[in-house]
Design brief:
The protein is α/β, with parallel strands linked by helices and 286 residues long. Helices cover 42% and strands 13% of the residues. Bound molecules: nicotinamide-adenine-dinucleotide (NAD). The site of nicotinamide-adenine-dinucleotide (NAD) has 29 residues, from helix 2, strand 2 and helix 5.
């Protein structure tokens, strides 16, 4: 496998076989921050499920291009597209390019995100703002452009019951406070109510908006937390299910949320976390 596919268990040809019923056939999917980690996994699954998949990145276009090449070689459709999701002009240009080249967009996976960790007394305004700008404002900007396009384009009953689908990558830290990461937890808490409010407002137009809250998933963002056996052992004390997640765990949930199989679902967060939010510290009594 090329690209940064370390975090995916299946090769692209195996994925194509897995989704041979192509639940997202003839749809256009944009996945932000898709040249790495969870976004890469989601993009690979979207393409295997039949979607023309746009792989957004802001750095390392060569990684995005390698994933595109791998998808195409396996018979899927994909293209890379660069934009910084925190910049309004770049997000608008990205959507304009997608509509021009692919006609519309049906599925948005708001995945791009990062961390700028610091102890709270030392956290700079720059560290706070950088995380809010990408993790929260970036999701707002992309969701707004996607909704505008869904409304402009109108229904396509031949591809989906819904006018459009938005999936916001949140985190267990939308509910679990996280010392040393106040900016990150605040951005994810913000995503929860942004997603729910969009879902409430846009449901009459048949636009569905949901979130996935991953637990600990092996990607570059949290490399230090699982890279050594000792670190992984510590991490596992937080995960009742007894394993650290992989991008594929999140990607499978994303395919379901993007497909008509989940048509009556909107405004919901799916916690894909091996039970991390089940207060594992209480498993032997309080
Ligand atoms: P990652 O670092 O592998 O991927 C993040 C991606 O976002 C990268 O491709 C990065 O280049 C991109 N990105 C950052 N800033 C961007 C910008 N301004 N414009 C466009 N792209 C940008 O990490 P990941 O773990 O795959 O993270 C993906 C999402 O999942 C993030 O929103 C993260 O908060 C969330 N998440 C991850 C975990 C985990 O355990 N890995 C847990 C919960 C939530």
């Amino acid at each position: 496998m090329t690209g940064t596919g370390t975090f995916n268990q299946y090769t692209q040809p195996e994925l194509m076989q897995h989704y041979d019923h192509r639940p997202l056939d003839k749809q256009v999917a944009l996945v932000t921050g898709a040249n790495s980690g969870i976004g890469e996994g989601v993009a690979r699954h979207m393409a295997a499920a039949g979607a023309m998949t746009l792989i957004n990145c802001v750095t390392h276009p060569e990684a995005a291009d390698a994933i595109v090449a791998d998808i195409r070689q396996a018979g899927g459709q994909a293209m890379s597209i660069m934009a910084d999701v925190s910049k309004e002009d770049q997000v608008q240009a990205m959507f304009a390019q997608i509509v021009k080249e692919h006609g519309t967009v049906d599925i948005l996976v708001n995945n791009a995100g990062w961390q700028k960790d610091a102890a709270f007394p030392e956290m700079t305004l720059q560290q706070w703002q950088a995380v809010i700008d990408v993790n929260l404002t970036g999701q707002f900007l992309c969701a707004r452009e996607a909704v505008r396009e869904f409304l402009r384009r109108g229904p396509r009953p031949e591809v989906s019951v819904a006018l459009g689908k938005i999936i916001c990558m949140s985190s267990v830290h939308q509910v679990i406070p996280w010392g040393g990461h106040v900016n990150y937890a605040s951005s994810k808490g913000g995503i929860k109510l942004m997603m729910e409010s969009i879902a409430q407002e846009m449901a009459p137009q048949k636009i569905r908006c949901n979130a996935i809250a991953p637990g600990a998933i092996k990607t570059p963002i949290n490399h230090a937390a699982w890279a050594t056996p000792d670190a992984e052992k510590d991490l596992l004390t937080l995960i009742p299910y007894g394993r650290v997640g992989v991008a594929q765990d999140i990607a499978r949930a994303a395919i379901w949320l993007a497909s008509d199989e989940s048509d009556y679902l909107t405004g919901t967060t799916m916690f894909v976390d091996g039970g991390m939010t089940l207060y594992p510290g209480f498993s032997q009594g309080g």
